[in-house]
Structures are given as structure tokens and as C-alpha cells.
Recover the amino acids of this structure.
């Protein structure tokens, strides 16, 4: 790897042993992926994927202490993934005992370290840091040092920033030293599409289901998606961004997609068009039958497959303000149709603290509260990692949550039916 004079001096320890270790780690990391050099991190803020004080992460806490004690804190303020616990989310005494004593017992201590390292503010904990309410929205072309897969794919695709799918802690190291290795999605060649995905459905495809289908097909490759723009209105407005947020998270978790292009919509597709497509790109056609095939392929890993759901999680990744408003209207309307006033399954809508604060300023907040739906800043995935939670029959419309936990996937329409009317079994 070719290093500049300044980078080589850091590597050689001229700015201290701790910073040298950070640079050496990033160089080794880059060499594994064929990086040809290091490039500056140019975004105003960073984002960390590690937000949870797991007891098992002792080496991370030791590393953080070394950085803090040596004065090598982040060169950028940063946001972090959602907190793992919220007392407002339903849980049993035993679940709470496991959470607090065996899983996230270091949470308070770890958050103190994150404060010392440079977190943006007390409540900057969300996987959707790029939302306007949070304020960590990179510009097109900026180089990032992020790891959170759903945030990386959004930043690359919807915002046109540049970031690889890094590992946890690598994100912090890039921000501490101010450089990241140049390879993959940081290069023009690495951002070219090796798949053309043709959308030939007869209706607007479910975002999470379409993302799942494409992710499982292309895996870590870059798809160029044709025909989706007509279902999204052809404009990259808030509704389209929300759709692509959920779509992208599914491509990144059900596969390993770090970047996709949507013809006529995403920034690079608008700027470069079909020039983004590599020679000999493969073709994948998605129609109604293909989406149904993918949906029916999902395993149900509940011990009792016909169990009555005990909990519903919505918001993985976190919901947008408009999603909270739209879902409030849908839940209220569906409950009225069913002759009910409150949801029949405990339901949690999760969103960034800043988004929830904004939502509380609207009249919809009281309306949603009256339905029995709980709003929370929690990470549903971290909740489900509890062995006792894993045994619960939990439903969701998040393909990311379905992939990483025992939660069972339903479409948005089926979720609405379940929580308001108790129906829509597969």
C-alpha cells in the first residue's frame, strides 16, 4: 500500500504509539482487500455500529480507554447505533434480569466512554443517523468511515457518499486517524453495477420483500435497478427515501449489498445513467411470482409454528417521522373498522430519539398512544438477542430483524391485520 509522508510517519509512531497501532490496523485491513492507499475521511460526522454495552466486549472497552487516555479521540463528532434497552418495551422479570446482569451490564460505562470519544449528543443513538432530525447526513462524494450496514447502503445509494461495508471498531479507527483504506466502494470501478435488475411487478413491490429478493440474488455485488422509479413517482422525495431506507436494509442484511443504483432516481444513476453498468452484467427479473417465491421461502423457526404472537416490532431500521404518522393513521383506521380501540398484540414502533421528539410535537402522538402502540428508541435486534426473547413468537415486517433473529416476517398489510384484527396468518 502506498502511504503519504504524513501517513507513513503516523504508521511509524511519530505521533505516538497508540495512533501508530490504529494506522497499522487500518493498513492491514486495507491490504486484505487490495487497497492501494489511504484516503482522508471527509464527512462532517462519523457513525459507530457498536452502541451496546455487552459484557463480552471487554477488549473493546480496553481499546476505548487506551484511545481516551492517549488523547486519540475521534476527529469527528459521531452518532451510534440504537441503545439495546428501554424500560417502556414489554419484557418479563427474567428477561430484564438477563438483559441487565448477563448481556448489557456495561451499558452505562460504555456510554460514558462514547461521550469522552466524541458522540454528537446524549441521544444520538439510532441506525438512521442520516435523517434530517438527527443531523448526520453526508453529502454526495464525501468519504465515510461507517460500519452499520443499513446506514452504509443508504449513504452510498441514496446520498451518493462513499463508504465500504466496514467492520465494527474499524469505523472509529478511521475517524480517529482521519483516513480509511481505498478499495471497493471508494473507487469508481467498485461502484459499477454487475447486475441489472428489472422490476416487472403489477403493483408497487413491498420494500422489504424486494430488497430481500435482490440481496439474496446479487449478494455483495452492485445492482442497477430498472423499472422501480415508476412505482416511486420518479422523484427522490421523502416517501421515496423512506422506501429505499427499508429496501436497502433488506438488501444489506439478506445479502451483503453496500450500494445499489435506481435508474432515474438515485444520484449517481441520474448523473451517469447506464454508464454505471459494467460489461457482461448479469440480469435478474423480479415479477409478482418471484416475490411470492421469495416470501414463501422464509423459514418459520418458532417452536410452535401456529403460536399467537406476543409482540410486534416495527422499525428495523428505525422508522421515519412520516412512517410514524402514516402508521398512526393506518392503525387508527383499521381499529375503527374492527370495532376496537386498542391493538390486540403488544406493538412497538421504534425510531430515532430526535424523530420521536418531533413526533411528540404532532397531534398524532396522542392518537397513537391511545391505540396502545408503544414508541421506543430501542434496537429490536438487541432485544431479540436475549435467549428468553428468542423463544417468544415475535412478528415484524423487517427483513433485517427476520434474518438475524427468530422474529417472523409478515408484509405491512398483514402486520396491520394482525395487530388490529388478530388475523392474516400465512
Amino acid at each position: 500500500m502506498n502511504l503519504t509522508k504524513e501517513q507513513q510517519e503516523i504508521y511509524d509512531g511519530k505521533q505516538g504509539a497508540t495512533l501508530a497501532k490504529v494506522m497499522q490496523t487500518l493498513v492491514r485491513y486495507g491490504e486484505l482487500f487490495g487497497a492501494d492507499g489511504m484516503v482522508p475521511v471527509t464527512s462532517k460526522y462519523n457513525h459507530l455500529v457498536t452502541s451496546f454495552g455487552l459484557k463480552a466486549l471487554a477488549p473493546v472497552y480496553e481499546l476505548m480507554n487506551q484511545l481516551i487516555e492517549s488523547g486519540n479521540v475521534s476527529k469527528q463528532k459521531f452518532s451510534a447505533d440504537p441503545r439495546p434497552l428501554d424500560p417502556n418495551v414489554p419484557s418479563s422479570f427474567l428477561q430484564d434480569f438477563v438483559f441487565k446482569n448477563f448481556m448489557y451490564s456495561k451499558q452505562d460505562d460504555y456510554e460514558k466512554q462514547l461521550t469522552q470519544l466524541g458522540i454528537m449528543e446524549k441521544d444520538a443513538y439510532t441506525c438512521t443517523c442520516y435523517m434530517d432530525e438527527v443531523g448526520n447526513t453526508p453529502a454526495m462524494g464525501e468519504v465515510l468511515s461507517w460500519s452499520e450496514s443499513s446506514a452504509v447502503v443508504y449513504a452510498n445509494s441514496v446520498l451518493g457518499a462513499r463508504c465500504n461495508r466496514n467492520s465494527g471498531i474499524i469505523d472509529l479507527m478511521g475517524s480517529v486517524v482521519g483516513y480509511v483504506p481505498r478499495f471497493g466502494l471508494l473507487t469508481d470501478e467498485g461502484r459499477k453495477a454487475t447486475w441489472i435488475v428489472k422490476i416487472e411487478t403489477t403493483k408497487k413491490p413491498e420494500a422489504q420483500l424486494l430488497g430481500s429478493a435482490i440481496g439474496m440474488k446479487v449478494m455483495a455485488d452492485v445492482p442497477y435497478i430498472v423499472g422501480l422509479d415508476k412505482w416511486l413517482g420518479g422523484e427522490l422525495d421523502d416517501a421515496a427515501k423512506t422506501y429505499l431506507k427499508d429496501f436497502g436494509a433488506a438488501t444489506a442484511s439478506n445479502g451483503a449489498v453496500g450500494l445499489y443504483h435506481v435508474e432515474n432516481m438515485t444520484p449517481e444513476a441520474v448523473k451517469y445513467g447506464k454508464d454505471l453498468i459494467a460489461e457482461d452484467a448479469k440480469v435478474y427479473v423480479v415479477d409478482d411470482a418471484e416475490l411470492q417465491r421469495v416470501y414463501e421461502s422464509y423459514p418459520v423457526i418458532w417452536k410452535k409454528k401456529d403460536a399467537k404472537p406476543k409482540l410486534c416490532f416495527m422499525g428495523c431500521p428505525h422508522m421515519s417521522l412520516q412512517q410514524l404518522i402514516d402508521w398512526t393513521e393506518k392503525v387508527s383506521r383499521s381499529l375503527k373498522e374492527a370495532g376496537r380501540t386498542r391493538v390486540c398484540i403488544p406493538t412497538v414502533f421504534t425510531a430515532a430519539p430526535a424523530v420521536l421528539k418531533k413526533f411528540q410535537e404532532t397531534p398524532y402522538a396522542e392518537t397513537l398512544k391511545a391505540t396502545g402502540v408503544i414508541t421506543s428508541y430501542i434496537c429490536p435486534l438487541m432485544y431479540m438477542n436475549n435467549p428468553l426473547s428468542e423463544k417468544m413468537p415475535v412478528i415484524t415486517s423487517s427483513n433485517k430483524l427476520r434474518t438475524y433473529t427468530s422474529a417472523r416476517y409478515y408484509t405491512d398489510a398483514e402486520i396491520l391485520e394482525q395487530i388490529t384484527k388478530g388475523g392474516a396468518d400465512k
In short: The longest strand covers residues 277-286.
